[in-house]
Amino acid sequence: YYMYATTDGSGAGFGPAQVWTSKDFINWTLMPMNWPDSHWIWAPDVMQHSDGKYYYFYCQPCIIHCGVSETPRGPWKNILGNSEAVLIPDRFVTNAITLDGQTFVDDDGSVYMYWGTWGIYKGFGCGAGKSAPDLKSFIETRLIPNTEATDFFEAPFVIKRNGTYYFMYSSGSCHDHTYRVQYATSDKPLGPYTYGGCILETNADGTIHGPGHHSILQEGNDYYIIYHRHDNPHSNRGFHRQLCIDRMSFNADGTIQKIIPTHDGVGALAPSVVKSANLAFGKSVRASSSYDDNFRPEYAVDDNNGTLWHPRGMGQEWLEIDLGRTQQIQTIWTQFEYGTQFYQYLIETSTDGKHWNIFADKRNNHLAGSPMVDFGKAKARFVRLTYTGGQKNGFGGAIWNIKVISGIEDSAPQQWIGLTAADWNGREWQNNEGMLGGAFILKAGSARTKRIDGRDALVLEPGTTLEY
Fold it and tell me: Would the pTM of this model clear 0.90, i.e. be above it?
């Protein structure tokens, strides 16, 4: 699974380009990408075309760009040549503000694209078009007006089921509780559409707040809606949002059932790649401080990506976990608050809570990633993580989850780390310490990823030098 998202909250949509990857839909790893390299990176969408290549669409206000790659992780390059070349300029379709581009591939392979924001004004709506085979232009375009898609604001997404086209979109303000998902139907991809109703909105107690800007994942005959909602407790103006998933079902007549949003998600969609239990789950925990009762220390050991331990200060704060008894520890995963920033920290273990041994020393770390994976070998009852610094001032060592594992997973996450080089060829692949115990750095030549016989391969060109 590949999940394309943009930085939120403190990131302000300024990048960096990234993709989250998972084999089971539970354990996710953040991977930086080489492109886009623009100032803003908003509302990404990726599709695989009939030529086997992947196409990455993203927005800046208010234009859409498109890149192409042989793999869903890049390296990408703009299909029009220049990195900043624009595929869809603003108002390309009259009265459709160009933003939130989304593709749909019909049964015959035809590609359609939909885009729009602030479509609530009279005569406005969503831009739509049938793409040329090379995706560089459009054969046909149309405005889907807000008289067809009632209260259309932004974030269109189209699916087809049993011959019916479902045009789904967000209404209301993304800053408050009015943000919601609605839909309309048609027997043609460009419409005209007939309004179908609201299917996802803020729940009664407000803990699922402002859900919207969704996509749909189909697994066999099962449908899932993936959307963002405001964090808990709600941040100012809804600028900190989190990604969620729930089931989506249809009635016998083809209408979409009202979605009951949950705090649980749907679990694994494939066999879990992590076979070992999380020894820290639900265990007793204490910390140097917590910001308030909404950011309690136990939230770091609840395996919940919607709850966060946040210390009160920005200095050397610590979190200590009591595993209940002495156990073997070889792997510790830490999911810090912001996956695109580096954190500096020290992990120690102890059998009695008084005498401590270093498990992982990352006090000079300058690598970002999520999760941060540390390998060692200890027999201990207590685990303590001390935050010592970070990439940005004013950001403390807040943690979503710490996972303590007795073994070394066969499919442990790996991190692609972007350095100061201008392109992918200057990147570093940091392998999991404890397996190879170091990193390979490209010193000369060229290296690239390629799909060979159905498997990912790292291709080293003649003359390439890697330093270990």
Answer: no
SS (H, E, C) 95-134: CCCCCCCEEEECCCCCEEEEECCCCCCCCCEEEEEEECCC
Q: Write out the E strands in 10-153.
A: 18-21, 29-32, 42-48, 54-60, 63-69, 77-78, 102-105, 111-115, 125-131, 138-145
Tokens coding 223: 């449908």
Main-chain dihedrals φ then ψ at residue 444, nearest 5 degrees: -155, 155
Q: What are phi and psi of 195, to 5 degrees?
A: -60, 135
- Angle among Cα 18, 24, 25 to the nearest 5 degrees reads 55
- The per-residue pLDDT for range 116-170, each reduced to its tens digit, is 999 999 999 999 999 999 999 999 999 999 999 999 999 999 999 999 999 999 9
167 burial type by CB count under 10 A (0-12 exposed, 13-18 middle, 19+ buried): buried
- What ranges do the domains of the chain cover? 2-257, 284-405, 421-467
Comparison of pLDDT for 468 and 18, the residue scoring more: 18
Residue pair 446/462 in contact (Cβ under 8 Å)? The answer is no
In the chain, count H helices and then E strands.
0, 30
Name which CATH class applies to 284-405. mainly beta
Summarize pLDDT for 401-448 with one digit per residue, the tens: 999 999 986 544 444 444 443 433 333 334 333 333 345 777 888 888
Of the listed ranges 24-38, 212-226, 284-298, the least confidently predicted one is 24-38
Arithmetic mean of pLDDT, 190-201: 99
CB 418 within 8 A of CB 430: no
Quote the tokens at residue 304. 């919940």
Peptide bond into 16 cis (omega under 30): yes
115 is written with which tokens?
């885009």
pLDDT of residue 468: 59
Query: Exposed e or buried b for every residue in 299-315, given b needs 16+ CB within 10 A?
Result: bbbbeeebbbbbbeeee
CB contact at 8 A, 414 and 427: no
CA distances from 335 to 23, 64, 105, 381 (A): 18, 32, 35, 21
Q: Which residues pair with 261 in a beta bridge?
A: none
Give the per-residue pLDDT at 278: 96
- Contact between 258 and 180 under an 8 Å Cβ cutoff? The reply is no
The pLDDT of residue 169 is 99
DSSP string of 373-410? EEEEEEEEEEEEEEEEEESSTT----EEEEEEESS--T
CATH topology of domain 2-257: Tachylectin-2; Chain A (2.115.10)
